[in-house]
Automatic annotation (TrEMBL):
Native organism: Celeribacter neptunius
Keyword Signal annotated: yes
Signal among keywords: yes
Pfam families found in the cross-reference section: Cyclophil_like2
Name of this chain's protein: Cyclophilin-like domain-containing protein
Signal sequence segment: 1-25
InterPro entries given in the database record: Cyclophilin-like, Cyclophilin-like_dom_sf
Keywords: Signal
Limits of the Cyclophilin-like domain: 45-151
Amino acid sequence: MDRRKFLIWGHAIICSLGLSLPATAEESGNTFRKGSTMTEIQFILGSERLFATLDDSPAARDFAAMLPLELTLSDYHGTEKIADLPRKLDTTGAPASYKPETGDITLYAPWGNLAIFYKPFQSSRGLVRLGRFDGSISALLKDGDFPVRIEIVE
């Protein structure tokens, strides 16, 4: 089954059961809003593909507008993989800080770089969540620098 159809089908089941999706960031723990359009992206590392969903926020929409991107990921402090972005992102309305969890895709606004957390970390000023991986991120747990292509799932 096509990934997009599966997500729509899953949403239909939630609605048919009389359940509702979170309506605010406070209810969901991120910037998802009921009725928003979530952007699905993929990280391509050689023959492996990791899927993620971007939040509905100015920074995440601005990041999606840059795609596709070819970046080089590097390890940073044994906690995250980072890469320089070609330009700064729109962080309008972003919280002053964010506490990242494993699988979070973030922007570190002061440096303008992408930061993908493979371990949880403390709340950090200037960290802006862009989205989250949908499954395992084990393909990112490599030593050294390595290339990645990030693109929107069509």
